[in-house]
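A quick aside before the break. I want you to see a complete sequence-to-structure record at least once, exactly as it would be stored in a machine-readable document. Don't worry about memorizing anything.
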Amino acid sequence: MVIGTLIYWLAVSYVSCGGAVAVAFLAFGLDRIDPSARGAYTVRPLLVPGVVLLWPLVLVIWRRRLTASMEI
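That is the input. The structure line, written in tokens, reads:
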């Protein structure tokens, strides 16, 4: 029972972090990563499940792109 509860809370924590990253990324980061996505607001809800599940990868790519754009 304890292991099941632990797995549940880990999954809830992971999805919660993913939701926060999805909101921030789709509001502020998508336009900086992909310039062709500017103004494409109808596509953003379709990206939410992918960003929620792959949020660590999204954060790494977002940081690399921001760092690369600041060096120029």
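Two observations worth writing down. The CA atoms of residues 33 and 64 lie 10 Å apart. The mean pLDDT is 91. We'll return to this after the break.
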